[in-house]
């Protein structure tokens, strides 16, 4: 009997543990596995990118309309004509005449492509790739006038070494004053492999801030045999009044390169600074000329309040200058004091006349007559002077 309760308790414990396991939340590993399954299901359900053209018989130099469906929305699609069925990627394609379009929200795009001559022989295709979300599709076409050949074996893509990528040229006198800077990009490449490299495109661009995104016209390339080295020179023209550091870069086949140069129009900077100084100087002169000029002092007007109003020596000088040829006064002393004081009602004219007589210089001595007596008038007494 004792064994039956123990067996029943064990069964109840197992049932309880199974309920806990079923009710427990999924772990991170389970969630990741489930998410991977859902992602794979979504990828399998998503439509594959397709490409079509208005015609499959292309003529070099003539445009053709290329459309696509099922592409990642918001991506950038690039269409180009390729030879050798684009087995080696861009090395078999005419990237110089590639056309770029933005994929719409419904996954479609439409672009006009000018048919070119790819570096590899036909069979030819229109190849479309997308970035940054990857996608790829091809369309078989017939390219009029292009050679036909057997498809090459799927050998690894040839490697290219960039031995030299630098900018040459020094700033000229015109560049120092804001003219367009001119530099020459010298690119030396070498094929270190044992197979020849087809006519890989040379793509060059310039830009600021370490990003080269403005294309530059580059020369056409030729096939690069195994072990051969070739140098290309590309003329790069920067915008007028360029200032700062500029990057020039690009790629040759699968190899990429970059270089940089500093451009500073110091002559233009000096002229700008000198113009600013001259402007400040001209403003200062204009402000000075706008101020009212100080009037010239009048010798007959007494000095201002900062100097003594009247002094004995000053009165004598005034009386001497204000005397006419006949001995009369041109300007009376009370006129002078009235101009100095500014309050004529406080001036005693009689007292001023007495002061004039006291301050007048002594009269000159007159010659004597035949009798020896002086003809000068008698000198006034002290009492008379006081009066």
Descriptive notes:
With 387 residues, the chain is of the alpha+beta class. Helices cover 27% and strands 26% of the residues. It has helices at residues 3-23, 28-45, 173-176, 266-290, 312-321, 333-341, 349-359, 382-386; strands spanning 50-53, 57-58, 63-69, 76-82, 99-102, 109-114, 124-131, 135-143, 161-168, 182-190, 202-208, 214-216, 229-237, 244-252, 255-263. A hairpin with a 3-residue loop joins strand 7 (124-131) and strand 8. The protein is elongated.
Rg for CA atoms = 54 Å
What portion of residues belong to β-strands? 25-35%
How does the helix and strand content classify structurally? alpha+beta
Q: What is the N-to-C order of secondary-structure elements (H for helix, E for strand)?
A: HHEEEEEEEEEHEEEEEEHHHHH
Task: Give the terminus-to-terminus CA distance.
Answer: 167 Å
Largest sheet: 5 strands, mixed
* Averaged pLDDT: 75
Catalogue the unreliable spans. 1-36, 38-44, 305-309, 381-387
Summarize the amount of helix as a percent range: 25-40%
Shape: elongated
Strand order of the largest sheet: 2-8-7-4-5
Please give the number of β-strands: 15
Query: What is the subunit arrangement here?
Result: single chain
Summed up, the helix count is: 8
């Amino acid at each position: 009997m004792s064994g039956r309760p123990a067996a029943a308790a064990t069964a109840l414990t197992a049932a309880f543990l199974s309920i806990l396991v079923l009710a427990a939340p999924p772990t991170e590993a389970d969630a990741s596995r489930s998410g991977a399954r859902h992602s794979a299901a979504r990828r399998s359900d998503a439509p594959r990118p397709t490409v079509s053209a208005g015609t499959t018989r292309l003529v070099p130099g003539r445009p053709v309309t290329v459309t696509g469906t099922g592409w990642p929305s918001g991506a950038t699609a690039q269409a180009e004509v390729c030879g050798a069925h684009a087995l080696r990627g861009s090395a078999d394609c005419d990237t110089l005449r590639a056309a770029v379009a933005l994929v719409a929200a419904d996954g479609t795009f439409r672009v006009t492509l000018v048919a070119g001559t790819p570096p590899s022989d036909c069979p030819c295709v229109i190849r479309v790739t997308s970035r940054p979300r990857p996608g790829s599709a091809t369309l078989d076409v017939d390219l009029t006038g292009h050679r036909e050949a057997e498809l090459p074996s799927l050998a690894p893509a040839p490697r290219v070494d960039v031995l030299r990528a630098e900018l040459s040229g020094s700033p000229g006198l015109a560049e120092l004053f804001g003219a367009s800077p001119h530099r020459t990009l010298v690119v030396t490449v070498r094929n270190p492999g044992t197979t020849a490299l087809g006519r890989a495109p040379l793509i060059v661009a310039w830009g600021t801030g370490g990003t080269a995104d403005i294309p530059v016209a580059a020369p056409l390339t030729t096939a690069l045999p195994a072990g051969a080295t070739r140098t290309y020179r590309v003329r790069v023209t920067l915008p007028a009044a360029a200032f700062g550091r500029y990057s020039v870069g690009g790629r040759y086949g699968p190899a990429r390169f970059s270089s940089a140069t500093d451009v500073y129009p110091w002559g233009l900077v000096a002229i700008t600074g000198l113009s600013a100084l001259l402007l400040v100087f001209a403003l200062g002169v204009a402000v000075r000329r706008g101020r009212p000029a100080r009037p010239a002092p009048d010798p007959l007007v007494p000095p201002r309040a900062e100097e003594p109003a009247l002094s004995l020596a000053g009165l004598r000088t005034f009386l001497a200058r204000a005397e006419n040829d006949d001995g009369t006064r041109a300007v009376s002393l009370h006129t002078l004091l009235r101009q100095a004081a500014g309050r004529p009602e406080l001036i005693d004219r009689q007292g001023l006349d007495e002061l004039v007589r006291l301050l007048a210089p002594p009269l000159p001595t007159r010659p004597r007559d035949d009798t020896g007596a002086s003809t000068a008038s008698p000198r006034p007494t002290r009492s008379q002077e006081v009066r």
